[in-house]
Amino acid sequence: MRFGGQTVRNIRMTVSYDGTAYNGFQTQPGDLRTVQDQLEQAIKQLTGEQLKITASGRTDAGVHARGQVFNFITESQIPIERWCMALNARVAEDIVVRDARIVPIDFHSRRAAKRKTYRYTVRCGKNPDVFKRHMEFHHPTPLNIEAMREGLRYLVGEHDFTSYSSVRTAKNSFIRTIYEAKLVCDPFEEELNSFAFHIFLTGNGFLYNMVRIIVGTLLQVGEGKRPSSDIGAILDAKNRGKAGPTAMAHGLMLWEVFYEEEAPSS
Amino acid sequence: MRFGGQTVRNIRMTVSYDGTAYNGFQTQPGDLRTVQDQLEQAIKQLTGEQLKITASGRTDAGVHARGQVFNFITESQIPIERWCMALNARVAEDIVVRDARIVPIDFHSRRAAKRKTYRYTVRCGKNPDVFKRHMEFHHPTPLNIEAMREGLRYLVGEHDFTSYSSVRTAKNSFIRTIYEAKLVCDPFEEELNSFAFHIFLTGNGFLYNMVRIIVGTLLQVGEGKRPSSDIGAILDAKNRGKAGPTAMAHGLMLWEVFYEEEAPSS
């Protein structure tokens, strides 16, 4: 497309990042370090353009991403196959751009996103795994995994997720659809005397802190403090006060974002 | 055992650590941060004793350990089952003491070690895995895995490892026995378009930089720069100059240390 005498392109990228050292994805007021700033600075270094990227959504401080998606309009004529390496050479090593492709000029990473999958990881056992400490929430006492699985079933379908949303949100609608909610266990690691499990939630959208509040409540189910059926009863209550605490950020990862033409790969 | 009027005990611990932030295991001159210092400071905080711990061996700056073993003699009467948690509360979160047990008073972690296993991990593919970047050496171009496996076979048995040892060493003997040398591939990760492989070496002892020089040479085999048979020819040459470069530290992990009563668990 030609725009203002220049040929412009819309470039869509997939990026992984370790969120440990960042105040979330999105640019913040003040000097807070964010993934978005890193990426925009790298693009500026590469092309000279001071532009704004659009992501599929924000992630909070300490939250990770395996497959965050963003896009931006650029006048740069750098061949598309050179972009990943060029940006990776200009960002910190906790950010890796994995894919770059040209998309229609009206593609918008947030508006076009059809589904997202988040993963939350918990390590059960006396000690954390020191090598995964930034991406696993450590729970030292035993959990009833089957009760948690049972609880997840109440979430599937279209529901009002008011109870599982931060009160700090100002959305018009709290209705979201969860397509899949599953709990997957890694094998027990004998020497570490522990195992990790992952909660995967796939939905058409997620409210602020929604995955973390769901996980915080499910952990209470796993601890035997609540029955599995509470997960459904809390949905019905439409009251944040009925749900459990917000689970810690570092166990959470934006796993994958799906667009129109794509089917979930799991 | 009673010693100077006090009952003393010899405590043996197994510790995991992420070596990224340390100048190796062993105490260094000056203000360099080491794992040993962290552990000794924690023991001092806990017991008031300013003692020296003895480890199975040192690890270099940036090298990790899954199962490093150390021991120390203490007058403290803290029950053995409380030691792990007490020390873990006093060290940085990149160190986790996983096991503590009372051993005979003459047990010495280095002298009593019968076998050690080291693991070296390489990620093959265009990009590193951002979440494992501190523990995988990233190799962006393809490697001939079968040629590397073939090369590993030359190492098994009793050999003079002069060629695979840093010239900065002053050992009486360069003879070591490798009991097992294997290469294990993780599954190909489609979305990351990459896979990791691990080289496990188990032997009765390792010379300074030995694993890293072996890996650096094997990578040249994998790149097609040398035939597999060079791994054996280099052994025969007894000349460090014939081997390849020393592979980077961060891919290396002290995996396990075996003592008399134990059999390797692999």
Automatic annotation (TrEMBL), chains A, B:
Keywords: Isomerase, tRNA processing
GO molecular function: tRNA pseudouridine(38-40) synthase activity
Protein name (database record): tRNA pseudouridine synthase A
Active-site residues, record numbering mapped to chain: D60
HAMAP family to which the protein is assigned, alphabetical: TruA
Lineage top rank: taxon: Bacteria
Domain Pseudouridine synthase I TruA alpha/beta: 15-109, 153-260
Swiss-Prot/TrEMBL catalytic activity: uridine(38/39/40) in tRNA = pseudouridine(38/39/40) in tRNA
UniProt gene name: truA
Keyword hit for Disulfide bond: no
Assigned EC number: 5.4.99.12
Keyword Isomerase carried by entry: yes
Family membership: Belongs to the tRNA pseudouridine synthase TruA family.
Free-text function comment from the UniProt entry: Formation of pseudouridine at positions 38, 39 and 40 in the anticodon stem and loop of transfer RNAs.
Sequence positions that bind substrate: Y118
UniProt enzyme class: isomerase
Subunit structure: Homodimer.
